[in-house]
Specification:
This protein is an alpha/beta fold. It has helices at residues 2-7, 19-28, 44-49, 51-69, 84-108, 155-158, 168-172, 188-200, 219-232, 325-339, 368-373, 389-393, 427-434, 439-444, 454-464, and strands at residues 9-13, 32-37, 112-115, 117-122, 125-129, 135-139, 142-145, 149-151, 165-166, 180-184, 203-207, 235-237, 240-247, 252-258, 265-268, 270-273, 277-279, 312-314, 353-355, 360-365, 379-384, 400-405, 412-419. It contains 15 helices and 23 strands. The longest helix is centred in the N-terminal third of the chain and has 25 residues, at 84-108. The chain binds flavin-adenine dinucleotide. Flavin-adenine dinucleotide binds next to strand 2, helix 3, helix 4, strand 4 and helix 10.
């Protein structure tokens, strides 16, 4: 206890994958920690209405899709019958198990968990209001803002809060399986949720206003997913935007503007809006302190995630892109270590990104597009999964692994992949980049056979021109 008093009182606002690891690490390092969140347990968007429930549903989607494909392998199942209540219970059980577990871990670490909404009074105290309106003031020596983000819902798309328009949170509730679903936005959340509903039986149409799905991802990787989505979805409309939406008795009438549109007017049972996320930086009392926001509403922070107030830090989605759980968790470590007086800094060489569609898409470090745009000297070594024994056994040869390599030093600068479960493989090249590994290191490391991890080794071998299973065309 003496040590806790020595390190001081830390308040963490927001219990997501930024806030709860920050609270837990700070408690481990001897801070007296209060963690405040408006939900019953820690977990935040990621555990309650983000990463975890979506992946539970995507697991089910994968089973449904594989059971259909099994016919090609001589195993025929009857058409799946979906019991939506049981599916919802399964998803809710997953969420409850994990968030309950975090509640227990909080207690074990003697983190004081306060349920309610927090707002700064000044740079030494916050006021917490619970669901019944009861107020409590919590004094602190230092604070971490980890309030995350929420779905963006531009007014013209919301149809005044109509039930026919979902955001990602509503879609994860599984209210129904619409016959037809329009997904507005071809980013990862829209494509993941589209994959879930398509497997449950909805006819899914995606509209994306740019020229390709997954903006930010290399085009050759996105193209492989796009090709397969065309067989899973009714339509994927690029360079297209929604000009007008009207609710009718039978659905939502949508006017589309786009290139080569055969049917610019269509009616859908349901619309899912996934056009981005907004930082939760309002109503926090930040105006009472020297904490600044940027033009997008993100809290401005330095290399240690410190705001304009020297005792207040911000991490996770509220502190800027990329909006990813593991980025928030890493920032939590940096901020807490800085608070503990360690020379910690935010300086990742690579932040992996995974899209959990079927196939998955994953990348880390420098993308090929970034290398080209930034004039970084590089070579790209590609290993197509069609040359992988493991991919052939899985009957999923459409994938691709590529390494972006510095030709001067052979250092690995980046890696991109598309293929089943490639999200689980992206940690290896991420470590390689962080460790400054070269293509030689990867090629010389024995990878287990037959696994898709060999594709990373083989891509390094392609770079040297001696992959045993693939010869790149000159
Ligand atoms: P959050 O998780 O947003 O948590 C913030 C918490 O603070 C919330 O509980 C909020 O209610 C609470 N809060 C806000 N204001 C206050 C206040 N004033 N007082 C008290 N509490 C407050 N990321 C991945 O890395 N992988 C994925 O697969 C993935 N899938 C996703 C799928 C979906 C459908 C969505 C929506 C997101 C997904 N994400 C994924 C993104 C990920 O969920 C976020 O990047 C991550 O949750 C951000 O963590 P955070 O700690 O910054 O904030």
């Amino acid at each position: 206890m003496a040590e806790k008093q020595e390190k001081g009182r830390l308040v963490v606002i927001g219990g997501g994958p930024g806030g709860y690891p920050a609270a837990f690490l700070a408690a481990d390092l001897g801070f007296d920690v209060t963690l405040i969140d408006d939900r019953k347990n820690p977990g935040g968007v990621c555990l309650y209405v983000g990463c975890i429930p979506s992946k539970a549903l995507l697991h089910v989607a994968r089973v449904i899709n594989e059971s259909r494909e099994a016919e090609n392998w001589g195993v025929k199942y009857a058409k799946p019958k979906i019991d939506l209540d049981t599916l919802r219970k399964f998803k809710d059980k997953v969420v409850k198990q994990l968030t309950g577990g975090l509640g227990a871990l909080s207690k074990q670490r003697k983190v004081k968990f306060v349920q309610g909404r927090a707002s700064f009074v000044d740079n030494k105290s916050v006021e917490v209001t619970d669901a019944k309106g009861k107020k409590e003031t919590v004094a602190f020596d230092s604070a971490i803002i980890a309030t995350g983000s929420r779905p963006a819902m531009p007014k013209p798309l919301s149809l005044d809060g109509s039930d026919r328009v979902w955001d990602s949170t509503a879609a994860l509730d599984l209210p129904s399986i619409p016959k037809s679903l329009l997904v507005i936005g071809g980013g990862y959340i829209g494509l993941e949720m589209g994959t879930v509903y398509a497997s449950l039986g909805s006819k899914v149409t995606v509209v994306e206003m740019t020229g390709g799905i997954l903006p930010g991802c290399d085009r050759d990787l996105a193209a492989v997913l796009h090709k397969r989505l065309k067989s899973q979805f009714e339509d994927v409309l690029l360079d297209t935007r929604v000009a007008e939406m009207t609710e009718t008795k039978t659905g939502v009438k949508v006017k589309l503007i786009g290139l080569d549109l055969e049917k610019p007017e269509r009616t859908f049972d349901q619309v899912l809006v996934t056009v981005g996320r907004v930082a939760n930086s309002q109503n926090l009392g930040l105006e009472n302190m020297n904490v600044e926001l940027d033009d997008h509403g993100f809290v401005k922070v330095d290399h240690q995630r410190r705001t304009g107030e020297s005792n207040i830090f911000a991490i996770g989605d509220v502190a800027g892109a990329p909006g990813l759980a593991h980025k928030a968790t890493h920032e939590a470590r940096v901020a807490v270590e800085a608070l503990a007086g360690r020379p910690s800094a935010w300086d990742p060489a690579a932040i992996p990104a995974v899209v959990f569609t079927d196939p998955e898409v994953a990348w880390t470090g420098l993308t090929e597009t970034e290398a080209l745009n930034q004039n970084v000297r590089h070579k790209v070594a590609k290993f197509p999964w069609a040359a992988s024994g493991r991919a052939v056994t899985l009957d999923r040869t459409e994938g691709l692994t590529k390494l972006i390599i510095d030709p001067g030093t052979n250092r690995v600068l980046g890696c991109g992949m598309v293929g089943v479960n490639c999200g689980d493989l992206i940690a290896e090249p991420t470590l390689a980049i962080e460790m400054g590994a070269t293509a030689d290191d990867i090629a010389m490391t024995i990878h287990p056979h037959p696994t898709m991890s060999e594709s990373i080794m083989e891509a390094a071998e392609v770079y040297f021109g001696h992959s045993p299973h693939y010869t790149a065309r000159k």
